Amino acid sequence: MVRLGVVLVCLAGAANALPKAAIRRQVSQLRTSYDFVVVGGGTSGLTVADRLTEAFPQKTVLVVEYGDIEFAPGIFDPPLTVWNGIGASASYFIYQSLPNTEVQNKPAFLLAGKALGGSSAINGMFFDRGSRFDHDAWNAIATSGSTPQAEHWDWNGIFPFFKKSVTFTPPTSNVAQTYGYTWDDSVYGGSTPIYSAFPPYQWGDHSVIRNAWKDLGVKQTAECAGGNKDGLCWVPGSNHPVTFARSHAGLGHYEAVNTTRPNYDLIVKHQVTRVVYPNGNPNDGPPLVEVKSLVDGHLFNVTVDAEVILSAGALSTPAILQRSGIGPANFLSTAGIPLVRDLPGVGSNLQDHSGPGIELNLTNPGNLSPSPSEMSNPDFVADAVAGFNSIPATGPYTLSGSNSAVFVSLPNVTSAYQTIISKIRAQAASDSVASSFLPPDYRTSPSMVRGYKRQLSLLADLLSNPQSPSIEVPFGTGTVFKAVHLHPLSRGTVRIDPSSPLSQAILDYRTGTNPVDFDIYLAHMEYMRKLVNTTTFQQRGAVEIAPGPATTDLLGAVKDSMTFSFMHPCCTAAMIPEDLGGVVGTDLKVHGTEGLRVVDISVLPFLPGAHLSSTAYAIGEKAADIIIEELSRCGKGKAKAKGKGKGRRDC
């Protein structure tokens, strides 16, 4: 911690002492009211709070965070000696889904951040972006319909915010030459103290795995963060470029905020239970924010003058909306919650990356040092710790989970891709067929069926594009490979527990309920199995351990080896028009409400082909830009619309 603080101050000029005067721990420390309340001090929420307090010094912002301020170690920091093992971490929620009936009744397990910084404080630190085709498809469904949309979320609309959100530092020429790192400075360019970098270290077999993928015909792409993401990619980690400590939102958008910003308040260890429209009219806002202390259980309201920004994440944001009476009318009635706004899409559309795996064995590996097994040698570990404590840091502890992955389109994975695409298009053409794959209580909702059909149509286009990846296989070392299905068709739900509404929401992943997902899982597994026969691996005596060359039941092997969650849940308050089952518009305002926005990863209509951290930062940056522009129309944020309702909307 001391080393990190010194380097950030001296080299980045960003890490001042924590502005403790702004940290509130009880209601008596809060102001009478706030212009903005941000619900959730995570990746997107802290980004918005930072930008709003910076742009409008006279506007007050309160961030309400469930967790506390914690040190957030990287995923491979001392004293850990098992690479990719379980080490120290910031706090997190542990979720277990309902059993997945199509996959041997197995549940999904996943984590979500429970500390300042949210999931950016606990994730795998793989800092990539989706392709331009992912974002163009997002924009296509978000802007469906006859109403003109002021905001655009296609690649051109979000790329400037990807650039703004992070400061990338290239490796030294020596490190770049040693490992073959490639990058394009033009796709970065930010000055935000959210950092990314390539480590000055890789395990000895990393280049061997890269060469095996090249043998398979996968091209090496020089830069995959600029919208073109097809091939073998180098991916930076979310590390500080000198200390190689984890870079996360709690540092970059809170600790690095100057203590002279007195309009920025944070209250920790408090849960937002719901938002409350005092007269029950969602058009008369902004709502109050009802908050519960996690220390003494005290319940109180926070008065908001401008708007409430929900940034509690894909699993908690829909739960807050449902507790507020905003969500599916039938479900809320069953749960005994008075209806404020019927939005069936709240908590629907749950998606996560998932996929099966294979395992190889190298019977003639040769010299692949350094390897993670050497971490069992005390002298090797002592050198590694000394390297990590150096300035700049060196050695294996500068690694995160991975810096490489292959991204390959479905047409380049399987010759049967046209059959798969035809199945998806047939589903999209039929109300009865498409609805049969939705959760039962959505099958009679015309808007939900229309929206799912529109998603299927766009996903068919995406999956048939030879430049749009369908599979990701990340790797760092070893011979176990996972095929990440980037664009699943199955849809799940997030719902509060009626018997305990303030507890963790109930997740129903429903993995594989659209059977075409299994066609894609199988195609991905068969593609990965070709690795064993590459020249590079055959020279090292590669044999397939799982599923094994004699396996005839590949579908069973898919189900046996399935990872249900790569910790990328999203899409549960989707940016889709209301008549297609959506929750927010392109301005991120909740349909049919006043003074309420959602700014987090739940607004995605469907998963991009990327890990979600960098996307969450970009969403926060673009959201802040939208809000700042709106306030600027009211005299740089100084003027207030008179009254509520229509006056505020016009402003």
Automatic annotation (TrEMBL):
Active site (record annotation): 568, 611
Pfam families in the record: GMC_oxred_C, GMC_oxred_N
Signal peptide feature range: 1-17
Superkingdom of source: Eukaryota
Keywords: FAD, Flavoprotein, Signal
GO molecular function: flavin adenine dinucleotide binding; oxidoreductase activity, acting on CH-OH group of donors
Domain (Glucose-methanol-choline oxidoreductase N-terminal) ranges: 113-136, 313-327
Entry-linked InterPro entries: FAD/NAD-bd_sf, GMC_OxRdtase, GMC_OxRdtase_N, GMC_OxRtase_C
Keyword Flavoprotein: yes
Cofactor: FAD
GO biological process, one term: secondary metabolite biosynthetic process
PROSITE patterns linked to this entry: GMC_OXRED_1, GMC_OXRED_2
Binding-site list for FAD: 43-44, 272
Protein family per UniProt: Belongs to the GMC oxidoreductase family.
Entry protein name: GMC oxidoreductase
Taxonomic classification: Eukaryota, Fungi, Dikarya, Ascomycota, Pezizomycotina
